[in-house]
């Protein structure tokens, strides 16, 4: 069977004040075209459909229209889990109507997909909290899915039936996955884990997160879920959360972040975005084929030493969204700012940098490097205010505030 893996649509997201809805619409149209051209049997959407728990109406309409197109009137299964930007209740709200179209939602780790059989031959063979098995039209072997939507620590402990605050949640999650896999996943079907988590190899290099992505702090205060926790029966792991396409591990099968739909922060400038096609058969290694997406305006971080050079570059790149750093010996005048913005409507951020060394606190405050991540900006502010860097416990508290789930 042929599976399409996508994630991190972030519908409704803006880049500063720039709407990305038209780009998102074009990218989703491209994704639907890929699903049809590749004749995929199921679509796996691994979380973060929306950018906020209460998305704009236009984003919700675009989401539902796209999922309906992907389902091909019930001939293709579409399975969706919630990410850390989604409201689990909103994700599951259309489920009674969506099931009739072959679209299935899981907002919580303990969500259970009800039994269903459509005239197309699509059928839910069996389900329990965190697991569902599907019969896909034209395929005798079942598709088995372990489903782990994003959950904060409180929800995850409830799902795992664990109240002990000292219990290692990573191990509890491993045990839960192993129990489901041992009970339902043998070599007679295709076995897939779909999750919205921060995943990496134990002892390996930590993957980078986008600048504006909220850190996931769910598992016993630790962000990482290690690939060696994935059951050996799993042939493919479809992940959401990180925005760059990457194969985190090859064992027990490919462990993959498909990437976001578009480049959503300047830290993603220059990245190619993908959807992933996984060719899967019972008891066989999965063949992974990433397909690049061509939709979306390019993002650029550029720096110039004078206004004329900046104007020349801007006029040569009219479709780009730009973070422009302009170095000068004097403060940027209003007329110069006006000329830059009139030359290019896609300037997202204009960062003036003075070359002359200054000593006053006011000037130092005006020249803070705004391209730093949130944690670095906080540490710089704390040092300026208190004359010393923040303690480790203070930084931990700040990270916890950044990761706070608005639905908790």
Main attributes of the structure:
408 residues; alpha/beta
Chart the SSEs and their pairings.
Elements lengths: L1 E5 L7 E2 L2 E2 L1 H17 L4 E5 L10 H15 L5 E5 L6 H5 L2 H4 L4 E4 L9 E2 L5 E6 L2 E5 L7 E6 L4 H8 L8 H16 L5 E7 L2 E2 L24 E2 L9 E5 L5 E4 L5 E3 L15 E7 L7 E7 L5 E6 L2 H10 L4 E8 L5 H10 L3 E8 L6 H6 L7 H13 L5 H11 L6
Helix pairs in contact: 1-2, 7-8
Description:
The protein has 408 residues and is an alpha/beta fold. The chain is built from eleven helices and 21 strands. The strands form five sheets. The protein has an eight-stranded mixed beta sheet, covered by helices on one side. Strands 6-5-4-1-17-18 form a six-stranded mixed beta sheet. The protein has a three-stranded parallel beta sheet with strand order 19-20-21, with helices on one face. Strand 15 and strand 16 form a beta hairpin. The longest helix is centred in the N-terminal third of the chain and has 17 residues.
Q: Briefly, what is this?
A:
With 408 residues, the chain is α/β, with parallel strands linked by helices. The protein has 11 helices and 21 strands. Helix content is 28%, strand content 25%.
Estimate the strand proportion: 15-25%
**Spatial order of strands in the largest sheet:** 7-8-9-10-11-14-16-15
Oligomer: single chain
> Percent helix among the residues?
25-40%
Rough outline = globular
Structural class: alpha/beta
Report the major sheet.
Answer: 8 strands, mixed
Q: Could you tell me the radius of gyration in angstroms?
A: 23 Å
- Helix tally? 11
Terminus-to-terminus distance: 38 Å
Residue-averaged pLDDT:
89
Question: Poorly predicted ranges (pLDDT <50, ≥5 residues)?
Answer: none
- Strands, total number: 21
């Amino acid at each position: 069977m042929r599976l399409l893996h996508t994630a991190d649509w972030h519908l409704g997201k803006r880049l500063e004040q720039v709407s990305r809805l038209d780009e998102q619409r074009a990218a989703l149209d491209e994704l639907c075209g890929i699903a049809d051209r590749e004749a995929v049997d199921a679509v796996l959407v691994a979380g973060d459909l929306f950018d906020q728990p209460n998305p704009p109406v236009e984003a919700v309409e675009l989401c539902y229209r796209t999922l309906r197109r992907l389902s091909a009137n019930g001939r293709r299964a579409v399975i969706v889990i919630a990410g850390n930007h989604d409201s689990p209740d909103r994700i599951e709200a259309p489920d009674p109507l969506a099931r009739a179209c072959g679209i299935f939602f899981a907002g919580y780790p303990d969500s259970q997909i009800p039994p269903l059989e459509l005239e197309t031959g699509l059928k839910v063979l069996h389900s329990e909290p965190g697991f569902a098995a599907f019969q896909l039209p034209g395929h005798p072997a079942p598709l088995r899915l372990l489903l782990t939507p994003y959950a904060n620590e409180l929800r995850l402990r409830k799902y795992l039936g664990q109240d002990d605050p000292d219990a290692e949640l990573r191990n509890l999650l491993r045990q839960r996955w192993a129990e489901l896999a041992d009970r339902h996943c043998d070599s007679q079907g295709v076995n897939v884990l779909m999750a919205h988590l921060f995943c990496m190899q134990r002892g390996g290099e930590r993957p980078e997160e986008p600048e504006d992505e909220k850190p996931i702090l769910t598992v016993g205060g630790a962000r990482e879920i290690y690939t060696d926790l994935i059951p050996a029966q799993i042939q493919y792991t479809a992940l959401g959360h990180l925005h760059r396409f990457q194969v985190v591990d090859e064992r027990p099968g490919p462990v993959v972040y498909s990437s976001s739909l578009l480049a959503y922060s300047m830290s993603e400038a220059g990245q190619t975005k993908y959807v992933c096609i996984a060719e899967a058969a019972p008891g066989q290694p999965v063949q992974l084929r990433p397909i690049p997406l061509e939709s979306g305006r390019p993002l650029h971080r550029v720096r110039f030493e004078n206004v004329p050079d900046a104007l020349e570059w801007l006029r040569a790149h009219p479709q780009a969204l730009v973070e422009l750093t302009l170095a000068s010996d004097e403060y940027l005048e209003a007329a110069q700012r006006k000329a830059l913005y009139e030359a290019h409507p896609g300037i997202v951020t204009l960062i003036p940098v003075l070359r002359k060394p200054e000593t006053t606190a006011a000037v130092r405050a005006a020249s803070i490097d705004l391209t730093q991540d949130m944690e670095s900006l906080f540490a710089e502010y704390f040092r300026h205010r208190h004359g010393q860097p923040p303690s480790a416990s203070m930084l931990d508290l700040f990270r916890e505030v950044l990761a706070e789930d608005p639905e908790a």
